[in-house]
Amino acid sequence: MKDYLCAKRDGLTVLAVFLLLIAPMSLFVSHIELLDSVSDSEGMFYGVLTNSAGTQGFLMTLAVLLIGSMTIGMTPKQRWEKFVQLGIILVIGFAAKTGLKHVTESPRPYTEVLTHQLLIPKPAHFYQLTSSQQDQLIEQVSEQVSPWRTQHWLGETDYSFPSGHTMFVAICLVCFGGVFMENKRYGLVGILLIWGVGVAYSRLWIGMHRPIDLVGSVLFIGLVYAAMPNLSIWSDRVFEWLKLHKRLSTQ
C-alpha cells in the first residue's frame, strides 16, 4: 500500500496544492457582479481561459501538454503507462460529470440573475423549459449582462455541479503535473497551476459555477486517481508481448 501511494504522491501533491489555491475563492465570489459591464480585453481573457478547458479547446490543451511531456526523459513503458492512465481518467471524469449533474440538479449561478430580473420564478424553473425557451430567456437578459458572459450561458444550459472544466484541469494536474513534479520541472508545475487557477476563477467570473462545484470536482478526480490500479503489471505484459512479437517477426 505504501509503494502504491508513493507512486501517486507527486500527482496528488500537485492536486492538493491546487485545492488549497482554489478553496479560498469563495471569498472572491461576493465581488463578482454578473450585471457589471465588461471590457473586451477582460472578456476575451476569461473567455480564452475557460475555453482552454472546454469543448472548444481542451484537445489543443492536451496536445500542448502531451508535446511538453515528450521532452521529459521517460522510457516507452513509462510513457505508455501515463497515456493509458490519462485516457482512463478522462473517460471516467467525463462520464461521471454527466451523471453527477443529473443526480445533484444544482442550478447554475446565472439562473439567479434570471430570477432577480423576474424572468423566472426561481432558478429550478429554468430547467423545466425547452432549450429554445432557455435561450430566449438568456437573450432577454443580454441587455443587462455582457455578451462575454451570455455567450457561455447559451452554450451551457445544463446543471452546475460538478464543474467539467475543473475536472479537466484536475486531470491535467494529476497526470501531467505529477510527471513534471517527478522530474523536478517545477517551472512547468507552476505554469500548470497558474493556468488551472485561472480556469477555475473564469468559471466563477462567467457565472457558471460556485466554489463548491470546483472543490467537489477536484476531490472527485483525486479519489479516482488514488483508486486507480497500478498499471505496471499490465504494461510489463504488453511490452513482453511486443518484444516476443518483434523477435518472432525478425526470424
Automatic annotation (TrEMBL):
EC number: 3.6.1.27
Catalytic activity reported: di-trans,octa-cis-undecaprenyl diphosphate + H2O = di-trans,octa-cis-undecaprenyl phosphate + phosphate + H(+)
UniProt keyword annotation of Membrane present: yes
UniProt entry tagged with the keyword Cell cycle: no
Residue ranges constituting the Phosphatidic acid phosphatase type 2/haloperoxidase domain according to the UniProt record: 81-230
Root EC class: hydrolase
Any GO molecular function: undecaprenyl-diphosphatase activity
UniProt keyword terms in alphabetical order: Membrane, Transmembrane, Transmembrane helix
Pfam families in alphabetical order: PAP2
Gene Ontology cellular component annotations, sorted alphabetically: plasma membrane
Bilayer-spanning residue ranges: 12-32, 44-71, 83-100, 163-181, 188-208, 214-234
Protein name: undecaprenyl-diphosphate phosphatase
Organism in which the protein naturally occurs: Vibrio renipiscarius
